[in-house]
Fold:
Amino acid sequence: MTAFRRGALTGAPFVVAAVAYVATFLAHYDRLPGRIATHFSGGGTADDFMSRATALWFGAGMLVGLGVLFTVLSLTAKELSQARTAVAIGVGTAATVAYPLIVTVLANADATDPAGVRMPMWHLGVLVAVGLAAGGAAWWLIGPGPGPAPASSAPSLPLAEGEAAVWSRSMTSRMLLFIAGAVVVGGGVGAVFGPWWAGALVLVLGLSCVASARIRVTVDRRGLTVASTMVPRPRLALPLGRIVDAGSVQVDAMGDFGGWGYRIRPGRRGVVLRSGEALSVRTVGGREYVVTVDDSATAASLLNGLVDRHSAEGS
Structure:
């Protein structure tokens, strides 16, 4: 997709959102109180207000400003993965911001006292769903671009019969730790100021991200094992009998797999903690497993040697 089309795809939802908001506001202008409720507490009660004119200009200005920001980000991105991320987040933001603005106008219509305006909390779930759906659709429309070059099989490390060899290395994802920290803080705030169960769910999600942020990758006589260093499950185990060959490959976390953690793509699975060097393992069924880890060439050579010896012993 060209830069112009990326910019158009990013900016158009903000234009549509701004027009829809202004049109909704003007259509209900005479039915709105002089001061309208613009912010609501966790219980759905109004706790902040603006004049009609200020609310109109504030909402429209925010949509236009965000539209310009994300359009510039999508146009200036140097890599397709960065542009794809900017477009998806931008489109999702347009939907996420426009929905509460428009719903707030409708909630204030015909209100005699803005303090009595209520905003049911189920709108929060709809807001999140709309934003994710819009961002996901944009992500899909942009497409991943050209696929990564297939990993070439690494040289096989010769192993004598009965010779033992083990390769092991741990990896930590700073990005996952950052995301986990932000989610845990958000869950704590939600538990204090909102429904406790919602905050607890977010806390569990954050802690699961922490458990996935540090892994140990091991190659030995059993095959390939990838496990969290913090919890025993889940873990990835590929026995030698299922492995065809292994190699080293460069991956882009966002461009190739759409993020970090355990990722699923057609014909590929990935334990992705960062962009860069990764161990690539091809299985009997033709599926590729990718694990981001340093010194992946050594791991691939040993794994190929173990696979060759296993095949020779079985023949």
In short: Residues 174-212 form one domain.
